[in-house]
Amino acid sequence: MKFVKILFLLAGISVFGQTGVDNQLAAYNFPKIKSSITMPVTIPLSELSNMINASVKDLVYQDDSYTDNNNDQFKVKVWKTRPIRLVGGTSQNLLIEVPLKIWAEKGIGTLGVYTYQNTTFETVMSFNTTVTFKNNWTITTNTRPNGFRWVSKPVLDYGRIQIPITSIVEKSLKEQQEKFCKTIDQQMATQLNFQQYALMAWNTFLQPFNISEEYNTWLKVSPVGVNITPLKFYGNQINATLGVDIYSETFTGSKPAASSPVTSVANFNSTPTVADKFILQTTANIPFTEASSMARKTFLNKEFDIRDSKVKVTDIRVYGVDNRVVIEAQTDGYIKGTAIISGIPVYDDAKRKIVLSETKFKLKTTNILQKTASLLFQGKIVKMIEDEYGIPTQELEETSRKSIEEAFNKEYYKGLKMNGKVFNLKPSKILLSSTGITAVIDTNASLKLLVNGF
Q: Which InterPro entries match (predicted)?
């Protein structure tokens, strides 16, 4: 069974970067954001039934010899009449029912002279299987016989003499039932060994995923640990909840290098509970080259009046100093020089933009003598920057929500279906580096995984 493959394949959780990225971004040192994903997993018992039925042939047992078993003069064949059925118990156990049709032939006689008569009857064989999910990604089962339920009892009809052979048949079936327990446990151990799938998924997840070709954006999610709640057994399904601790990074520009592959996956941690909903943090990154380009589109060649004269913005660039974004505007006209406006970047929920707060102003010029004109210029250009400059996030938020929900509602592998919903998504923190602005995006969501039809 392949449902563990999907545990780490959540790289479709998408945020997008900005246009105009360049090759300088390959060296950008993006922050790692630690977060976790919680995911309830539902495994229908019908899927385990399919697995067991596929491994158990229709002809369960056959004895073609009259002379074995101390010359018992008895032959028997046992078939499955319907699919084996599983029902969830109350103590991490499975109740297994195997419906059987049995053909038996018995010889009656002495001194080597026998008269043979056959009969066909049906019974339901029951088993009780205790399931243990070990933290090394393997499952062990302990299957024990749980008796028979006769649908029709075996009787040999010799006309006037009818000989019940229930005791003979039961003896043989009990022996076979003990052997069948071992077969069930062996099949379970083979089919429910998730170590290879966990290792495959872990290493697949270490590869950066291109989440937006249009914006040349990459998401790299590094798993660091997995928490799993105890398996819960119900009438028709097994439930558990997974918590995957991760570091997520978003890159724009060149594809980032993949992490080194691992040769063995770490054991998971058992935990009593994991939250139904989760907060996932990702990052969207805007290099200062792009922030400068956005500022030029807004302010380049813009003019405003100062004392019946014109001041024109001839160039503008954006960079960072410490925790402040600096906008440096070159002006010409009545005031020729460099206006420097700096501020702390914050997310404005109403404008849905990254804007500047706590702004400061500094002017470098050689052609202005009047203090009043300088104050007028400062008031106008600072107000213009505060009102009009901002990095819009509305499209980012809406596109991210759509991308995440699309990623959360897919069948990544045959029989492995995810179902999820985003409740809220918005930037929560703005970080600065020497080369760009990083928005930390909080995503409140729920996610479920259904194993069906593998």
A: DUF4403
pTM exceeds 0.70, yes or no? no
Whether the pLDDT of residue 259 is over 60: the answer is: yes
β-pair partners for 88: 94
Within a domain: residue 454?
no
The predicted pLDDT at position 124 comes to: 92
Q: Is residue 196 part of a domain?
A: no
Task: Read off φ and ψ for residue 24, nearest 5 degrees.
Answer: -60, -20
Count other C-beta atoms under 10 Å from residue 263's C-beta: 6
In a domain, 40, yes or no: no
What does the alpha-carbon distance between residue 439 and residue 343 come to, in Å, rounded to a whole number? Answer: 16
Task: Tell me if 137 sits within 8 A of 169, measured CB to CB.
Answer: no
CA dihedral (223, 268, 445, 425) positive or negative:
negative
* 288-332 confidence digits (pLDDT tens): 988 898 889 888 998 888 877 888 999 999 999 988 999 999 988
CA dihedral angle for residue 425, residue 429, residue 432, residue 437, rounded to 10 degrees: 20
CA atoms of 30 and 438, how far apart (whole Å): 8
Closest CA to 231 of 125, 84, 129: 129
* Token representation of residue 449: 């995984």
Tell me the Cα Rg of the chain.
36
Domain count, the chain: 1
Q: Is residue 425 part of a domain?
A: no
Ramachandran bin of 453, using left for φ above 0, alpha for ψ from -120 to 50, beta for the remaining angles: left
Structural domain harbouring 52: 45-191
Euclidean distance between CA atoms 22 and 8, whole angstroms: 30
Tokens of 235: 């009438």
304: left (phi over 0), alpha (psi -120 to 50) or beta: beta
Strand pairing partners for 447?
420
